[in-house]
Amino acid sequence: MQAENLWKACSLEALKFKTDMSFVYGEPSPMGPGIVRVVARNPSPLTFKGTNTYLVGSMSLAVVDPGPDDTLHREAILKAAGGRPITHIVSTHAHRDHVDGIAKLKSETGATVAAYPRDPEAGRMALKNTPQGKLFVDYDFQPDIALSGGDILRGADWALTAIHTPGHAPDHLCFALQDRPVVFSGDHVMAWNTTVVAPPEGRMSDYIASLEILLDRQDDVFLPGHGGRIIDPQRTVKAYLLHRRWREQSVLAALSAGANTIRRIVPEIYQGLAPQMIPAATLSVQAHVEYLIEKGLVASDQPLTPDGALSAL
What we know:
With 313 residues, the chain is α/β, with parallel strands linked by helices. 31% of the residues lie in helices and 19% in strands.
């Protein structure tokens, strides 16, 4: 228990959320030379103030994550472009709060859409019990340009390098701005909260590995899909890794204390949790349990369910 308390203390000390964010809906906010942000008016417990849309470039523009299908937000994007051609639309991942606005923006601009392609045969999941509570993945979304990790997308005066960072979603990409220490981090790393890793869409082992990819970089700022900019990105990534390690130790401690199912572990870790957040917490614990099974530290009934028996190895 002393070790568990030490992990918790270290994690909470390192993980300090930044919830301040200066913006006005519909108005572009400068994020650095050649970068502006427009925030969509789709706030929620999972999207914070709304989806961040970024316009990148000066001569021609790339739009990163057009956000929801919302007329006012699309008009704000076009107004922020100021008559400059939008040649590319870039998606970090095919969750609807990021991609639903793509089709109409493409129709208005003729832009080329670039993203990591999802496997259309992967199955259309029943998502009633997910944190989003509805069908939140656009399974039919297919980009014009299929990007993989390491691919470079170029405009007239900008270039973006794709970094494949699965975990929150299997198709998640971050984008590094060439010749600038700036990364568009999507939902992979955010300042206002930890990232949702919810099976079957999310996978914890992938998420940890993807965090370690960003940890090896030397960037000055991350521009996330929700919330304010992150000005100490490597420290933030380290804190998120430590936080996940603490969650892992908490799951093992709860299991050792007799909580032998995911459903029993949840209240041990998330004490006093609001009822509406229990589904999200349950899937987060499930993601950690899946990772512990992969590491050979936990055994379970198969298929893994919230009430299936678990045992430490």
